Amino acid sequence: MFSLYTLDILYNVTFFVTLIYGWQIYSGSAAIRGNTKGIAFMFAVFAALMLGLYDIGYGYSADRERYAYSFLQYVNSDISWNEILLNKEWAFHLYQNLTSFLGEPQYWFILTAFIYVFNYYVVAKRIAPESTLLLFLAIVGAFCFNSYGINTIRAGLALFFCCSRIDIL
């Protein structure tokens, strides 16, 4: 859908939001004392759309292309529950089977990106209720956020489960 520059948009927006927020912290602005959950939520929607709408890249993308082909297998054929449950990665295949009603791989990537990003948003909101935006910006700016959200979706979803379990403890 978008070109390879989609992530550049995410990087640049993340940089400028962090720059503006950092300047407000530095100058002691009263806006920082207010609750920033609304801004963090809008930024989470933006980040999820940027990750989900990233080009699948048939022919030059490794993992993302394999996930798209794997998802299309569930859309175009009737794979039995036995086959899914006997697979060593049964949870991921079950997820792909349950979401196969979406039909298009791009929609599946958008849904998966929303699950991936909003789980981090929930973790940031629980850990730092008064500074949700600051923590969420740190999460989005982390070196592994985009790579887990783009290429290794299974690892990104697994990382979410680890983070959400740590948050509950």
Your description of this structure?
By secondary structure, this protein is mostly helical. Helices cover 76% and strands 0% of the residues. It is built from ten helices and no strands. It has helices spanning 6-27, 30-33, 37-52, 63-76, 81-86, 90-98, 105-127, 132-141, 143-150, 153-168. Helix 9 packs across helix 10 (153-168). The model has no long low-confidence stretch (mean pLDDT 77).
Can you lay out the helices and strands and say which pair or pack?
Elements: H1 6-27, H2 30-33, H3 37-52, H4 63-76, H5 81-86, H6 90-98, H7 105-127, H8 132-141, H9 143-150, H10 153-168
Uncertain spans, ≥5 residues at pLDDT below 50? none
Q: Give the overall form.
A: elongated
Cα separation of the termini? 39 Å
Report the mean per-residue pLDDT as an integer: 77
What is the helix tally?
A: 10
Helical residue percent band:
over 70%
Radius of gyration in whole Å, from Cα?
18 Å
What is the percentage of strand-forming residues?
Answer: under 5%
Which structural class matches the secondary elements? mainly alpha
The beta-strand count equals 0
Order of helices and strands: HHHHHHHHHH
How would you sum up the major sheet? none
